[in-house]
Each structure stands twice: as structure tokens, then as C-alpha cells.
Amino acid sequence: MAPAKPLALIHARIVDPGTGELREGGLLLRNGVIAAHLGPAERLPADTEVLDCGGKCLAPGIVDIGVKVGEPGERHKESFRTAGRAAAAGGVTTMVTRADTTPAIDSPETLEFAARRAAEASPVRLAPMAALTKGRQGREMVEIGFLQDAGAVAFSDGDHVVADPKVFQRCLAYATSLGALVMAHPQDPGLSAGAAVTSGKFATLRGLPAVSPMAERMGLERDLALVEMTGARYHADQITTARALPSLRRAREIGLDVTAGISIHHLTLNEFDVGDYRTFFKVKPPLRAETDRVAMVAAVAAGEIDIISSMHTPQDEESKRLPFEEAASGAVGLETLLPAALRLVHSGELTLPQLWRALSLNPANRLGLPQGRLDPGSPADLVLFDPDAPFVLDRTMLHSKSKNTPFDGARLQGRVLRTYVDGRPVHVRDGH
Fold first, then answer.
1. Domain-located, residue 415
2. pLDDT tens digit string along 361-409?
3. How many domains is the chain built from?
4. Is 106 part of any domain?
5. Which pTM was predicted?
């Protein structure tokens, strides 16, 4: 088979999270990698295929931490095929998948099954996480070494907090000996049990079971004390309250290897969006006060919150069309992550390079992946997008099997025009 011709993407606005620059230029792709950066009048090899980007933005593909795919066990909610198509349409070139499947990804066999299915069905890359404890039950540690050998990039029980500190300490200590990353959900499990919203006047008026924002800080401080004890590599999947930030700062000041993330929903929505018990806005942890949302955006801009993710959690209609207290938590986000995040750019709260640092470079660095950057020699995983293209989201048009998005009917700006994995187009919007 003859090698593919080099591809030059020219006349683009390059979003480079590594240098923090937004500049005019282009990229030359060859054999699946970025071969060179191109200037405005660069001479190209004679056999080069050329795509004029028309001044649109070209950036590293998104590395999305915390994507739930229903296989195995809940394929009716999301399959690798539908999740992969949704990811490609959303500019996500690497899905870092969660282990909260049925059964959980807690053995090399289930991990290899997921990797094989993704290779067969998904047009984008898979970087799988594995569970931290067997069955995500918080009692017995998984075989971390064997799962690492099978390809696990991190270990997490998801929103099942390992309540027993002795068990969590053992997991962290063993992960430390292998250099494995542990990703945890900082919540006090007792305080947050059964909660549907964040405590406050709104929760009281709606008569809904609520949890104090202090539950997040308490859970984080417990985790950080054990990280200090063991020296583990630790990532908090979602820090969503201003009260948790001082704990995070102190951990970094004393040299702990700690990073933190947040979902796009907690950066762009607040507790009032629940409105009249709208279950598509029920997520975990629950949406917070507007003061917390603003503080989290500032923390992303300052680099205190490292990673933005979709926390893509597909739920079928039956599990969402219930009273708010009983409805399942979670929202899909693979296709809405980019346009929702661009709200923060259009409002002047983040620059495009700052946003891409959190969407691509930082998650790739944290997981030891070569993606998320534009350095020559890096994988040619890219997204070409128009940050200003307006549209109204129609959830029925999403590629995901489940349509539980809080952005249904929302006016958004930002369209993905093309997505490349290894220099090959895996999504091309009509007319582009």
C-alpha cells in the first residue's frame, strides 16, 4: 500500500497550548504525525495535498478524561461506535474511558474486551481507565500491575468513593510503587448520600435532598492526607466548589503530585438551571452556586484546575423521565464540550490557548500520552473549528445513543469542521 501524500493545512489560526500562542500559520502532516509548522508563504513539496482552512482555528484534538461508554453491560445507552462518532463530531480525538460499566473494568480480560471493541468500532483513540477496587465496591484492590500491563492509564472507582481509609491507603501505596495514577471523586460519602442538589435557599424552596459544598472539601482533605502519607500520584476528577481550592493549593505547596479537573457542566451551568425539576440538569456532584462557578472558571484560567472534561454520562429516557430525586445523574457531553467551553472564550474569561491547555495538553501530560500538542513529531490528532459559528442545539441530532443533554435548545457558538486522528479525517462537516 502506497504511503499517503503529505497534507498541508494552511491559512489557519493555530491554537498552541504548549506555547500559549494564537497565531496565523499552518501545519504539514506526514505519515500520521505533525512534520512541520508552516509560515504564510511556505514552499511545499510537489506531491503535497493542500487544505485551505480559511482562517478557522486549528488545535490539538481534545483528550477527554472521564467518558462513560456502555459496553459492557449497557450498550443500549452508548456503544463504542456511537461514542466514537460523537467524539469525532465534537473534536475529541482521545476518549479516556471510565471503569463504571456493568461489570466494572476490574480485570485484564474486561479491559482487553473494551480495547478490542473500541479498536473495531471507534474512529478515535481509546485510553481506558480501570477500577481501583474489585467491582468498585471499595473492599479489595484490583491487580493494578496486571491492568497497567493491559493498557490501563489510570485507576478509579468513579463516583463510588472508597469509604474505608485503610483500603484507600493500601490502594494508594501500591499504586505509588508502580507509578500508577489514581483518580478519585472527592466527596464525603455519608454527607452526599442521596443528595440531588447543592444545599441552600434554592434546594429548600424546591424541597429536594441536598448536600453541603463542604462535603467536597471534606472528601478532598481526607484524600490529600492519604496522598501525603503514601506519596501517590492523585487526580481529583471534579473540584466544583471554591471551598475546596485552599486544600488543593496547600497540597501543591508541600509538593504533592496532585492535579484536579472539572466538568464543562460545572463551568457553564449553576444550581438555578435545574429550574422546575429538569432532570437533564441532574449531574454528580450537583450543580453549584453561581459564585462557585465563577471561582472555578478563574481557577482554570490561573491553572489551579488543570483539566476540563465532558464527564460524558449517557442515560436512557426511562432513567431520566422520573421525579428529580429518583432520576439518574449524568449528562452526555462529547459533542457539546467544545461549543459549551467556547462560551468562556466568548465571555472573555479564558483565551483559546488557556482553554486548550485544559482540554488537551494537561490531560495528555497527566496520563503520559503523546497527544494534546503541536510539536513536530507529535501525533497528527487535530480539530479544525469555527469558534464563531452560531447554532441552536437539537438533542435529537446528537450522535450519542442517549440524548440527555442540558443544552437542548440552547444557543451555542462553535462548530467542529474537521477532526483528524493520525492525520486521517474521521469527521468532516458537510461543505468542509
1. no
2. 999 999 999 999 999 999 999 999 999 999 999 999 999 999 999 999 9
3. 1
4. yes
5. 0.96
